[in-house]
Specification:
The chain is mostly beta strands. It is 0% helix and 62% strand.
Length: 120
């Protein structure tokens, strides 16, 4: 079994910062791409940022320059540093990871989500 557990969500004022963390645990061989997605009320889940095992990153235009995704391959964690937060960043943030659980066998996993609320 594989689990992704997010932490770090909460309430923050506009312009503030918050750091989300996600840890993969369980029986697996490796973690490939990891990322953060978010879903606001009444909207589709959208990509926020992704990072490959080699460290290449990709960001949604709305968060470029404000958010930074990083990972620790030894700890199987991925973080999202969120700065200059805006009310429109309010959403449930989900961790996603492509995980290999057997040789040449992998799939994506989702965390349970963590609420981020930015007050104006």
């Amino acid at each position: 079994q594989v689990q992704l557990v997010e932490s770090g969500g909460g309430l923050v004022q506009a312009g503030g910062s918050l750091r989300l963390s996600c840890a993969a645990s369980g029986n697996f061989f490796g973690v490939n791409n990891m990322g953060w997605y978010r879903q606001a009320p009444g909207k589709q889940r959208e990509l926020v940022a992704t990072i490959t095992s080699g460290g290449s990153t990709n960001y949604a235009d709305s968060v470029k320059g404000r958010f930074t995704i990083s990972r620790d391959n030894a700890k199987n964690t991925v973080d999202l540093q969120m700065n200059s937060l805006k009310p429109e960043d309010t959403a449930v943030y989900y961790c996603n990871a492509l995980i290999t659980t057997a040789m040449r066998s992998y799939r994506g996993y989702w965390g349970q989500g963590t609420q981020v609320t930015v007050s104006s």
